[in-house]
Amino acid sequence: MRSDVDSVRHLPACGYRRLRWRNGLGWTREIHAAGSEGPGGDGWDWRLSIAEIEADAAYSAFPGTDREQVLLSGDGLVLDFGHGDLRPLLPPHGRQRFGGEVPVTARLQSGRAEVFNLMWRPARAAPRLWHRPLVGSMLLFAEPGDCWAVHVMAGQAMLDGGRAAPLLERGDSVLLDASHARSRHMLEGSGELLLVQVAAGSGAGAGVAQ
């Protein structure tokens, strides 16, 4: 096994591109869009972003995609799918998974909220998402063809002793791509992380060790 520094891409929070929702009713900060033709383009295989929800609003429709959301900040919200189907995203880090083509309205509990948004096209990508505390150290193992995304929800994290990326602060992310050989990466620090593993096929297995 090896830690391949060439496979690491640091994504600082200050570099996320702020974009309008497709329906114009809100804003999102795009973390990464894999396979996209350009920032904000729709040609991606999978995408990570942070939705800024400042008022009750309908989400944009994304036929042919699946979505998973995790509450990052605020007093929470309820996803209203109509006909009495109400699904909460409540503090501290409520989460929901649903189809991108389904009409849904975000209804705030009180005040502004931010939501981590994972979107993917099932025919092209098979992601899995974990919320994990970081206390001391954690190992990530990436198989060839996998891509990992690490997002720091709270605290700080250091990747591979700081050789491959700067210190990760709250809101920062990093991508780990094991395109050629199995790789091992060490995360150290204190806080909370969101980990996204994206495999080329649907048979992805867990690769988190603590």
From TrEMBL:
Coiled coil: none annotated. InterPro entries: RmlC-like_jellyroll, RmlC_Cupin_sf, Uncharacterised_HutD/Ves. Transmembrane segments: none annotated. It comes from the Bacteria. This is HutD family protein.
